[in-house]
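Re: beginner question about structure tokens

> Can someone show what the tokenized structure looks like for a real chain? I only ever see the sequence side.

Sure, here's an example I had lying around. Input first:
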Amino acid sequence: MKPDALDKITLRQLQIFLAVVEHRSFVGAASQLRLTPPAVSMQMSRLSEFLDAPLFDKDGRSIQLTAAATALIPYAERMTEALTEACNVIDALQGRFDKLVRVSMVTTSRNFGPHLLQEFGQAHPDISLETTIANREKVIERLETGHADLALMGRPPQRIDVEATPFAQHPYVLISHPAHPLAGKSLITPRELTQFQFLAREVGSGTRMIHDYFFTSQDLRLPSTMEMDSNENIKQAVMANMGIAFISAHTIALERQANKLRVLAAEGMPAMREWFVVHLKGKRLSPAASSFKSFVNNEGPDFMRRFFSE
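And the corresponding structure tokens:
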């Protein structure tokens, strides 16, 4: 590194460097940062010159990182994150902190989640809420990329470090059409269930894990299973008497009231899990996001009891 490098390397160069690393392309980085590709190339040439080390090797239309670039990444990320946090602290001290809370929730929570957010909004009219409902992987992706401050989900992710706080029990039940041969039985053994057609979500989903574990934990073969892409489709298929399924009890209240499906009395059911409010570990929550997290932790248990007893 040149002796005067510390005086000449700029934060903007590090931001451009991280964009190039993300896109593996000067053109992609230029598009993201609203610069021209020559401007990106020039700044990266200067950064390389100041560090006295090559940062990128061209490979056709894309570029490859050198060992120096790979070593620089965590330090560049820390510097840009530190500046962002410093600006957020100053904004908060001056009363200009963001009043928006971005909440992402898994599709299983769509029955109660919007109502929980509505109660929070009524208690905190000065805070704006942005809500997305998606499958588990999309919710994890939004947390990981910073597009969501908090998430409501039934099983915390393993591939990213998060802080997960349980706020309510989450029962899973086994359901069938009211005319299904098992609907009238008082107690069904796991072995009996292997003879029947099941409907299930994709491999990796929380519901599918409960489905598989129910049988493998009893050293039983998995039953014939038709895979479906949503809980709503599973419910519709069960109501058409196409098979039986494990599903969150929090998604079937209306169908049970209308007697369109039946909860089966199977050994080991319901399977009890928990609902969690989740955010990235170490993430500095805004005062607005902290208010939402506290609301879910403090008011969530009573809300869930009221909501599902009505």
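Each token stands for a local structural state, so reading them left to right follows the chain. Residues 155 and 201 are 15 Å apart (CA to CA).
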